[in-house]
Amino acid sequence: MTVLASPLVGVSNDALVLLRRAAPKRPLFQPFEKGLPPELAARDLQLFRAFHQRFERLARVVPTLSLERLLEAIISEHDYDLAALAQWDGRRRYANMRKLARLARSYEELRGPDIEGFVRFVREQEAVGARELEAVAEEEDGDAVRLLTIHSAKGLEFKVVVVADAGRDRAAPSPDEILCLPDGRFGFRVADPATGERRGAFEYDAVREAEREEEKAERLRLYYVAMTRAIDRLIVSGAIDPEKRADAETPIGWVLDRLEARELDEAEHGTVELLRDGASLLVRLDRYRPEPLSALAPEALGSEGQLELFAGEDVPLLPPPAPRLPDLSSVPEPPLHHVRSLSYSALALFGRCSYRYYAERVVGMRPSDGRGSIPGQSGLAATEIGDAVHVLLEHGVGAGDVRDPVLARYPAATEEDLVRIAELVRAWQGSPLALRLAQLERPRPELAFAFEHDGVLLHGRLDVYAESDGRALVVDYKTNRLEELTPEEALEDDYALQRLVYALAAFRAGAEEVEVVYVFLERPEEPVARTFVRAETGGLEADLSAAIAAIQEGRFVPTPSELACSGCPALDVVCAGPRLPGRARATAQA
Ligand code: SF4
């Protein structure tokens, strides 16, 4: 109920009541599987269906994601981060989300990818110290020194961390007289009737030992947590007596033992540098020195019998100054966007509107699904119609059989959408280009490709690819509405990049000549073709390099157009789209 009512889904209270009524004694999720209540308002119905789709999608990828990534996926799939940021205390809420993700990462490092366990852990944390957890999240990046217990530092990271008093670790002796382990072993202590001495009964000693081992392991886990909170520098300070076995159990004793710091045995005072696996550890030694007797001699006492604090040159008033550590080198500002892999659709998106590319591919805003979110539109968005047509053509579905597969994929499709999709499929199947493809040997629909250029992996799918005698034919269907435009005008320069990526992919696959054909299914008899020969490869690669450089440069400017703005997640959120002054487009084009 909480999830459904929250901004994750955001259904109305009426919808919650109807959902509960639809399955009064059954799990709340059942109506999603057996059928949602028909009385639901259209908006609630859409929200429920969208949630169900996302939920199923996320549930499928759970085994492949870490807890941290899963949390991030849940947040971004539901645009929960945007919803939180839109609140007056959005920064704090967003910081809490980030903290939760880091907490999940730390939890997984220690306990594995146990979702249930993590949820339980968070609930327990909430029960015992939610306020402290939240306050820390808000100030984690603050310009301040924070004093934290190790427990409350879990999941956080700081540039510099000091683990203080690391030479002390006195676990309080357990007063438990009756001990029991989860595996069923148990024991207790009883007084010997003859001597009155307390002795363990049953498996008390073994159980006690097992508990000690468990406590020790838990302590080591805590030390590990404490010492992995630092990003740039970790300082562990404390005093131990290397002769004492108990001190080896303290955080600093544990670290020195793990480092096998034999160099310290010979050193007296001062700084010793330990080099381990390329890491440099400076250990400053202040060995115990008994105070000179003269300082305590009666004559050192003042007239009032008080110790004269500043008397006697031999008395070290302060420990020697700490060794000066090398200054932290400043980290260069990361580039706004460093692209390592690009799909051709990303390139095309960048070509259409670089600001939308930024919103979707860098910030992670999800394109709107169009159902009700684009003013004046209902049913499927243009992109969804395009997707449905591509899937039908890939599987060779006839125009008369589109209803069931489309509704299975897009339950929100209207009759009008179904008619349009059937028309587009029919248009392609009767087109001259489809007939030409049928003559060719083995045309391959939805052929995946990938190649590397300038350190960037270009990848994508070709709607149809066919090759014969070193001559490749690449077909790309377009389902956009042309309105008054001709196919040539509709393509403008927006698809130049996409076209050259197709050509380069075919050349890399061994073709000598590549014909790239765009066909608008509204007018399949007017395909727009462009042929490339191998000699043009150098020029195409130079153009691609320039496009990649433009993306790497990180200059993102809105260039509104009907095609670009339809379904854009930035529209009316961070960009006015078509209502931008004409200047924006002119500037961008300049
Ligand atoms: S609304 Fe239009 S102009 Fe603005 S980012 Fe989206 S596509 Fe570009």
What's this entry about, in short?
This protein has 590 residues and is an alpha/beta fold.
Salient structural properties:
alpha/beta; Lambda Exonuclease, Chain A; binds iron/sulfur cluster; 590 residues; six-stranded mixed sheet; three-stranded antiparallel sheet; PCRA, domain 4; disordered C terminus; 3 domains
Our count of helices gives 24
How many domains is the backbone divided into? Answer: 3
Which regions contain 5 or more consecutive residues with pLDDT less than 50? 372-376, 583-590
The CATH class of the largest domain, by name, is Alpha Beta
**Rg of Cα set:** 34 Å
The helix content is: 40-55%
Kindly name the structural category: alpha/beta
How would you name the oligomeric state of the polypeptide chains in this document?
Answer: single chain
The number of distinct β-strands equals 13
Sheet bearing the most strands, described? 6 strands, mixed
N- and C-termini, Cα separation? 52 Å
Apparent shape = elongated
Bound molecules: iron/sulfur cluster
**How much strand content do the residues show?**
15-25%
- Return the CATH architecture of the largest domain: Alpha-Beta Complex
Mean pLDDT: 81
If you consult CATH, what is the topology of the largest domain?
Lambda Exonuclease, Chain A
